[in-house]
Amino acid sequence: MSHQYDLCGIGNALVDIEVKATESELAGLGIQKGIMTLIDAPRMIELLSHFGSRVSRRSAGGSAANTVITAAHFGCRTYYNCKVANDDTGHYFISDLCENGVDSPLIKDALSPGYTGTCLVMITPDADRTMATYLGITAELSIADLSVETLTRSRYLYVEGYLMSQDASFEAALHAAYTARNHYVRVAFTFSDLSMVQHFSSRIELFLSHGIDILFCNSTEALAFTHTSDVAHAAKLLSNYSKKGSITLGPEGALVWDGHDQFIVPPVPANAVDTNGAGDCYAGAFLSALLNEHSLESAGHWGCKAASELVTHYGPRLTHRQVIDLSLH
């Protein structure tokens, strides 16, 4: 069977807006540092008003979107299933996705009325990212928004954990994974954020119980989901759901497992200023390496290299020069 795409993603469509903030400022605004919090439109307006002219940099985002874009930068043929509204923000999202080499089912003249989702990403001096997300119309992402034919002609399906938070998107994620398995498309899944593990662990467990091929998470998410305090033990427990996977360890590198053994991928030193999108970038580079016939351990190395480059500047994207320097070929 010929494959039209290497990687087909499904996830939220959000335009990321970045701003620098202090820890005391987050506390004063009643925002929990280091995680993603869902907010409504009035709260988003309040936060944007607070930061005012300090708001800078915007890009088409969302966990899976960042991963798919990274894979596209490394030469993979990619497609993204998502939902945006017929507004300026939605039009920007479509254009940015296209400019980064990602195909999608989005057609500007056929979009629904409403508001496209936005994510305010607040970067503290320790390079940590805290997110306040207004889902907008992406909260309505459903099975009807999936391009099933495209999915069945892909090598991998990539699903983000944020889809666990809404009934319709959760059903869409389940349907996409079911369809993928029936057409011998490999399924990759990411926890996306600690908040998803804290509030939607039962849905994550149900999704994983059907079996997936590759699991991505960070150490905090892994320990919380498995209710253990040891990363190696967490990986062993997670291997019951996915024979292959990776737990990122921040500045300590990553742990990779293949169903038989565990490997520690050493860190790549970096002067981090912004960790927003680092895990997404890691997954995109990791999957790109696998799609280029690299070993699982080698994929972990590529993931760490890419993430270490990403965090040295603001924004969730590698620069053109970084992509060239990190070429997988």
Question: Can you offer a commentary on this structure?
Answer:
- With 329 residues, the chain is of the alpha/beta class.
- It has one domain: UDP-N-acetylmuramoyl-L-alanine:D-glutamate ligase (3-Layer(aba) Sandwich).
- Helices cover 39% and strands 23% of the residues.
- The chain starts with a strand and ends with a helix.
- The mean pLDDT is 94.
Keywords, please?
329 residues, alpha/beta, UDP-N-acetylmuramoyl-L-alanine:D-glutamate ligase, nine-stranded mixed beta sheet, five-stranded mixed beta sheet, 12 helices, globular
Shape annotation: globular
Q: Main beta sheet, described? A: 9 strands, mixed
* Radius of gyration, whole Å: 18 Å
Work out the helicity level: 25-40%
- CATH level 1 class label: Alpha Beta
Write the layout of secondary structure elements.
Elements: E1 5-10, E2 14-20, H1 23-28, E3 36-38, H2 41-51, E4 56-61, H3 63-73, E5 78-81, H4 88-99, E6 102-103, E7 117-123, E8 129-134, H5 148-152, E9 154-160, H6 167-182, E10 186-190, H7 194-209, E11 212-218, H8 219-226, H9 231-238, E12 242-248, E13 254-257, E14 262-265, H10 278-291, H11 296-310, H12 320-325
Parallel strand pairs: 1-5, 1-9, 2-7, 3-8, 5-6, 9-10, 10-11, 11-12
Antiparallel strand pairs: 2-4, 7-8, 12-13, 13-14
Helix pairs in contact: 3-10, 7-8, 8-9, 10-11
